[in-house]
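task queued by scheduler; priority normal; single chain, no ligands, no partner chains; default sampling; output format set to structure tokens
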Amino acid sequence: MRSFGKTQGNRLKQIRNALSLKTEEAALEANVSAQQWRKYERGEAEPKISKMIFLLEKGISIKWIMTGEGPKRLSEEKRKTENIFSGHLADWIKEKIKEEPDFFMNFAQECIIHFPEYMKWLKRKKMAEEREDSLPQRMDVS
């Protein structure tokens, strides 16, 4: 049973638009081609969880994208405490395991395969934040 289709793709597009991201920008954040991102939005391909982590970082509920349940955005409080193995995503994973017994094994394999990719993304993000922090502050002379 395929769990990602047009409905989830439409939600993904809705979120991208709400974040004011162009297709190419979302694709870059997810580390996929713009063509692949469009396939996700049309429901023609299912994004791996590693490709949606940037949405979680922006406070978007992955559970809402997948199921339509709950709020679209996580509260600031939840955003600080949530990670991919807790809260709303963990509930979604538990449900998937009930529906598809092989889901956990596939999910675990995805985590193992994509962990180095996620760590590279995290490092790039941290470096970008450090560069931004090191820039001199502009002075308003008006």
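post-processing summary
- The two ends are 61 Å apart (CA to CA).
- The chain has one domain: 6-133.
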